[in-house]
Fold:
Amino acid sequence: ITDKIAALPPDANYFSLEFFPPKTQQGFSNLHARLSRMAQALRPLFVNVTWGAGGSTSAKSLALAELTQRSLQLTTCLHLTCTNMSRKLVDEALEQAKVLGVRNILALRGDPPRSEEYRDPTNPLAEEDDSNKDFTWAVDLVRYIKKEYGDYFCVGVAGYPEGHSDQSHPEYQTVDHDLPYLIEKTAAGADFIMTQLFYDVEAYQQYERRLREHESGVFKTIPIIPGLMPVQSYQILRRTTKLSHASLPTDVLKRLETVKGDDEAVKRVGVDILTEAVEKMKTLPNPGPRGFHFYTLNLEKVITQILERSSLIPPATPMVVANSGSIVADQAV
Ligand code: FAD
Structure:
């Protein structure tokens, strides 16, 4: 990923798209078709594949990474969590990623399991020893990958522009609390930082400025990729912002609340809001190409509109318009 970013002109913009592995075979087939269209029409610099904490989606995440990296030839960043993962499970995941040709890992702690729902008994890896003696924090995983694999993997870490909703602690943790650990992860060799979703562009701007100007100097040139979640529905927005501790600025909330009874209008206003956020962030000073990461929720239509409107891609080809269908057809898979 960092090689691809470095190869872009310094004033270029790029974006990445995040997908989660569907639970069913039908969902996987639907996503396969959708990803093929999106790969061709949107041409993201890379795509991300999420990982269930404790390895609960390991087989499915690896299958999706195989599809994106091998079949669709999309540069893939595989997320990997380390909490509740033995070293053996981490080794297996990294080895399999290597076999698939995946060169990028987003090294995360993950959230400790709250219940047995995290364990998938049909997953062969889940039967392995799950005592987590080797990894406590994401930095342990960054260090481990760097020690075992040198520069083979380009390693990203998570940043939290509005603080951290750490589910292993009852309280919300501020940017101040989190910052020393982000410094630690970066000093341990992280190659890029990808952020939690946010809608408060001012808060993000302050966060990025704070990192860039930090006296440690570790954030001077590292790519910092802001995370954005397109608005798919008013309910999803309220739920995800609550879970992630992302604030909703008054003007954003007002615009969406005015139309909250009309799903199509919510999406339309959401496209406006996200497009404006991208346009605003494009103007922020940056030491290199400016990237944007989109949490797609495996959906296609709204993200395509945002990317077109903010000129991150050329206008969609007729094939994409024909295949993407109506918003009604654009349901999560
Ligand atoms: P850490 O960096 O380890 O931080 C966790 C908490 O511990 C923070 O509050 C931090 O301040 C604190 N901390 C860190 N180090 C120390 C230390 N040495 N001593 C004391 N406190 C410390 N989750 C998934 O399960 N699957 C995914 O695919 C996934 N993808 C994500 C993608 C992005 C871009 C982001 C932002 C998050 C993602 N998450 C995912 C969620 C993530 O796993 C959780 O937010 C998790 O609670 C923290 O992970 P982390 O890597 O930030 O952990």
Observations:
- The first strand starts at residue 13 and ends at 19.
- The chain is about 45% helix and 15% strand.
